[in-house]
Write a structure and sequence with these properties.
This protein has a single domain, classed as Cytochrome p450 (Orthogonal Bundle), CATH 1.10.630. The protein is globular, with a radius of gyration of 21 Å. The chain is built from 15 helices and 13 strands. A hairpin with a 2-residue loop joins strand 7 and strand 8. It has a six-stranded mixed β-sheet, covered by helices on one side. A three-stranded antiparallel β-sheet has the order 5-13-10. By secondary structure, it is an alpha+beta fold. Helix 7 packs across helix 8, helix 8 packs across helix 10 and helix 11 packs across helix 15.
Length: 400
């Protein structure tokens, strides 16, 4: 059977909408051929069960992408010593070293500190007065401050983090040369922090990983730098976007916002539904390569072929979720795949959940009548990067 001509991917949509093509593919062609901006063609899995299979079956490999022209959204390749590109047992070795900083217990111990950071940010917004920009005044500084404290990064160095992070998720926002320069600056900064921790050991995640490198030789110097850069970038950029995306959706779904305001104890479940509903990325990333022939969605994927998983499509699968295109904060159904599934399930998901819960509770508690400054037409949306969300979200609230 001839392989069909691949469709151009990603499938674009406005704001936080999801392209209707995903629904069509789930019904008619759950495994379809796509061509990303860079790399070879791939299969795209759009159904929930197929997504779980590809993400968890050991017959699919991330590490194999090193030897192939991996389908990708950006011109540059993921470093070969990155945690996200490794298969077991190497993946497990590195993940164990960082995982202790993100256990549910340790993150819950951090909750009061995260709450204090959120309250301090709101205090500044109230002192400054309305309107405020939710992005720059709250959504970005909250996770940046948290991940910096967790890692052991000096507060005064945080100003450059957002630019460095955007260089990692840039598709067209920066030229290839600009993005490379920003990534090199982050690598050099991390090398300096590592050297400083060697000279003056401290009780933080960088200190723990430096000790693991120097005392136990459990990771290489390159792995150490790549891991810390990945944790720093991944530790705030997505959380910041999710905070603004969540608030935008609540303000544009007033009936759901009213449900939440009436019972703030619903916030943990509301966060899970918002995670399911929000298509955070413009597309998908991190191909899995079949190590042997395997059937997915009624199609035989041949050994050596790449499969991409559309998590946002899987989270709207009609066979799993009732009325999946409706935001329903009272939903109790199958677990979403916003943080992935299987071996590469997001390492920082416990921290992200607490940050998102704290952010919503703080904003809804401290700002009565939280609303758009004038209308949602004033929201400025990001472009040229992998994540989807507002670049500016002007808000106001009721004065006492």
């Amino acid at each position: 059977m001839p392989i069909p001509r691949p469709a151009t991917y990603p499938f674009m949509a406005e704001k936080l909408d999801l392209s209707p093509l995903y629904s069509t593919l789930r019904k008619e062609q759950p495994l379809s051929r796509v061509q990303l901006p860079y790399g070879e063609a791939a299969w795209l899995a759009t159904r929930y069960e197929d997504a779980r299979l590809v993400l968890s079956d050991p017959r699919f490999s991330r590490n194999e992408s090193i030897r192939r022209d991996e389908p990708r959204m950006r011109s540059f390749r993921t470093p070969p010593d990155a945690l996200m590109i490794m298969d077991p047992p190497e993946h497990a070795r590195l993940r164990r070293l960082a995982a202790k900083a993100f256990t549910i217990k340790r993150v819950e111990d951090w909750r009061p500190r995260i709450e204090q950071i959120a309250d301090d940010l709101v205090d500044r917004m109230l002192t400054k007065g309305a309107p405020a920009d939710l992005v720059t005044d709250f959504a970005l500084p909250l996770p940046i401050t948290v991940i910096s404290a967790l890692l052991g990064v000096p507060f005064e160095d945080q100003e450059d983090f957002h630019v460095w992070a955007e260089a990692f998720i840039s598709t067209t926002k920066y030229t290839a040369e600009e993005a490379a320069e920003h990534r090199e600056n982050l690598t050099a900064y991390m090398a300096g922090l590592i050297a400083e921790h060697r000279e003056n050991p401290r009780d933080d995640l960088i200190g723990d990983l430096v000790a693991a490198r120097d005392q136990d030789d459990r990771l290489s110097e390159g792995e150490l730098q790549t891991m810390l850069s990945g944790i720093l970038v991944g530790g705030f950029e997505t959380a910041a976007m999710q905070i603004t995306d969540f608030v935008y959706l609540l303000l544009t779904h007033p009936e759901q916002l009213a449900i939440l305001r009436a019972d703030l104890d619903r916030i943990p479940q509301a966060v899970e539904e918002l995670l399911r509903f929000v298509p955070l990325s413009i597309g998908t990333a991190f191909a899995r390569y079949a190590l042997k022939d395997i059937e997915v969605g009624g199609v035989t994927v041949r050994a050596g072929e790449a499969v991409m998983v559309a998590l946002h499509s899987a989270n709207r699968d009609e066979s799993v979720f009732t009325c999946p295109h409706r935001l329903d904060l009272e939903r109790h159904e199958a677990p979403h795949l916003a943080f992935g599934h299987g071996t590469h399930h997001c390492l920082g998901s416990p921290l992200a959940r607490v940050e998102l819960q704290v952010a919503l509770r703080t904003l809804l508690t401290r700002f009565q009548g939280l609303r758009f400054h004038e209308s949602d037409a004033d929201v400025v949306w990001k472009s040229g990067v992998l994540t989807r969300g507002p670049e500016r979200l002007p808000i106001t609230w009721d004065r006492d």
